[in-house]
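Weekly modeling sync, notes
Attendees: S.R. (lead), two postdocs, one rotation student

Agenda item 3: backlog of single-chain predictions. S.R. asked that every request posted to the team notebook include the full sequence so nobody has to chase files. The rotation student volunteered to paste the first one in as an example of the format we agreed on. Action items at the bottom.

Example entry:
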Amino acid sequence: MSASGTPIGTSSGKPRILTGDTPTGSLHLGHWVGSVRRRVEIQPSHECYFLLANMHAFTTRTEDSASIRADTIEIVRDYLAMGIDPQQSAIVLQSEVPAIAELTFLFAMLLPFNRVMRNPTLKTEIELKGMGDKFAFGFPLYAVGQTADILAFRAVSVPVGEDQVPHLELTREVARRFNQVFCGVPTDIEDHEHEQHGGVFPVPVADVGRVGRLMGTDGKNKMSKSLNNAIAIADSAKDVQKKVNKIFTGRQSPTEPGDTSNALFQFVECFIPDAARVAELKDRYARGDNIGDGHIKAEVAEAINALLAPMRERRAQFEGPGSDQRIIDIIMDGTRRANRLCEETLLMAKAAAGLKFWPRQLQLG
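Predicted structure, as returned to the notebook:
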């Protein structure tokens, strides 16, 4: 049951989606435009599960478990601030869904190691974080774990940012492989027909946000807290203005024709809602029509603050004494619902793979 007593689950008749975030600190505008805005939009029409991937955080922060716990709670504050409604959507704690761990081990048998390591997102993260060859075995394993995150819920689509699409392609490969090896689904069957031919798992599709990759305030890299180029959902109006002022363009003069493909104009297009004003700014900037970066940054900051103002108000309702427990109660409710579904999936997968010897009943929370 939801917090309001309304049932949410397998009888909804709505298409099911699963997506989530690894707890690495507060969420930022890149998360909003890349995925969370889409989640908020489809809540009424979809059966939604949003995963707090706290076990994945251990792949690079094993000795920082207290911070991972705190970050997990902060992410939920940001979810609620941005408009995720726990009465419509289940917020789920990964470490309390045992089926995910069991499926991860099973799916690891279906993937060659070199295929996992070809994942471009893994390669990029290894380079950005300077891991060399010293990363834990669990680091590449988390790519397999992400396939279990999604398939445990038998999700048909996954709202993701552009950088997560390679992970989803691995998930699609695992779904096909499992259905072919253990369920007898022919190799020439179209992806959307796998369940009709006896497959346990749907082959999920990516639902990429309107902005697949938001640049950070450094004007060079994707927005990321670890790169110190992010505007957080929880930032004050003054902090937003300061950070927007740092957006680098390289332009020297308001009469110098500017490149409207730069990071500043991605912010213009993402956050200024008036299309006519966006077109006017782009035209004047491209011609060098006496319009400086500072003027445009002021408009961008004003638009971002207008977007964040109601989010700040909602977030404030989940801060202060006793708020952590309120958030944990929301997570527990969503995780109970998730376990009912994921245990059903695990039973189906074990039966297909010849691993079911007797029924089991799991109760958590």
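Discussion: group reviewed the output briefly. Residues 1-11 have pLDDT under 50 and may be disordered.
Action items: rotation student to repeat for the remaining queue; S.R. to check formatting next week.
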